[in-house]
Design brief:
The complex is a heterodimer of chains A (117) and B (208). By secondary structure, chain A is mainly alpha-helical. Among the domains of chain A are: 52 residues; 29 residues. Chain A is built from 4 helices and no strands. The termini of chain A are far apart. Classes of the chains: A mainly alpha (117), B mainly alpha (208).
């Protein structure tokens, strides 16, 4: 990451002393190291293999249980690294969690309605 | 705090990258809710027709689904590497990554094409009589399958169109390191397309 420190995104290009005042946000302004993204990719492939393997070898509850646990894990990896949420300002993470909370609420209410009607 | 300091940037063409990115994420949330609605229908229907869903899922080719997952994951990697390349000022390399992503997206659609084609030739076709004659909700499963993978496929096509535009702008120098937003937001969109597929795989292909 050292070598990339000199590179800044558009908003910061002509801002003197940006580094000193913004070391908190510094990471998000720089490209994520390629090796890190490769590792995330390999993790995603391995998790896919685990899901498919479990489904083929233990069809039914076990296979579906594994998919139920592993799939959100894969989604989290994509969101955090590929979609850079890990390096964004906290407000983006909060926004995302609110959107998920809305989705979960709608789903929850639908199921309550469906189960108890 | 940090945004205040950013806003003091004067004298240059002001680009509100935080605002633009916020807008992009808001759009992605509407996409999540769009697919979320379909996931709700899927869940309720699967609860209703558990046996039919399992029987129908047997007819899907797991390995085509898995291959397409790997293809899409790889395309997400090339996309994110493209963003990083441009942020390092390597526009040519970024362009190469965008073209690779386009190629992989095309591969995904091609596999999907053959997969749907095989279903069509067996009479399993959206709106066909055959679907209504299937028992235990198998028809529901296939309708949802065509609906959800179809909507996802449309997203892939839109993504490809945007990538062609991005590629042209990288070529012409309109998108540069100092103006990389469009590539970054395109990548966000593409990762969302990948994200949705991640959930479609176990719902349709691994439901045996």
């Amino acid at each position: 990451m050292e070598s990339t420190n000199a590179l800044q995104s558009e908003s910061w290009d002509d801002e003197p002393g940006g580094h000193a005042t913004h070391h908190h946000d510094e990471e998000e302004l720089h490209p994520v190291a390629d090796e890190k993204q490769f590792k995330v990719f390999v993790a995603l492939i391995i998790l896919t293999a685990i899901t498919v393997g479990a489904s083929v070898m233990y069809p039914g509850r076990i296979g579906q249980g594994v998919a139920f646990v592993v799939t959100p894990l894969k989604a989290t990896l994509i969101l955090m690294y590929f979609m850079h949420l890990r390096y964004e300002r906290a407000v983006f993470v909060v926004m995302f969690l609110v959107a998920i909370a809305i989705l979960a609420t709608v789903m929850g209410l639908t199921f309550l309605d469906y189960l108890f009607r | 705090m940090s945004t205040q300091v950013q806003n003091t940037n004067a004298g240059h063409v002001h680009k509100d990258s935080i605002g633009a990115k916020t807008g992009m994420w808001l759009f992605l949330f509407t996409e999540l809710l769009l697919f979320g609605g379909l996931f709700i229908i899927y869940a309720v229907m699967r609860g209703e027709y558990t046996h039919g869903f399992h029987a129908a899922a047997e007819e899907l080719n797991v390995w085509l689904g898995v291959t397409n997952t790997v293809v899409l994951l790889t395309s997400s990697l090339t996309m994110v590497l493209g963003v990083s390349a441009l942020q390092r000022g390597r526009a040519g390399l970024a362009q190469l990554y965008v073209i690779s992503t386009l190629f992989l997206a095309g591969t995904f659609l091609l596999i999907k094409f053959f997969e749907w084609g095989a279903k069509f030739s067996h009479g399993v076709f959206p709106g066909m009589e055959h679907l209504h004659n299937l028992e235990h909700g198998e028809g529901v499963f296939f309708n949802l399958y065509f609906m959800m993978t179809g909507l996802h496929g449309i997203h892939v096509i839109i993504g490809m169109i945007v990538m062609v535009v991005v590629n042209n702008r990288l070529q012409s120098g309109t998108i540069t390191r100092a103006n990389q937003g469009i590539l970054e937001y395109t990548a966000l969109y593409w990762h969302l397309v990948d994200l949705v597929w991640i959930f479609l795989l176990p719902l349709f292909y691994l439901t045996n």
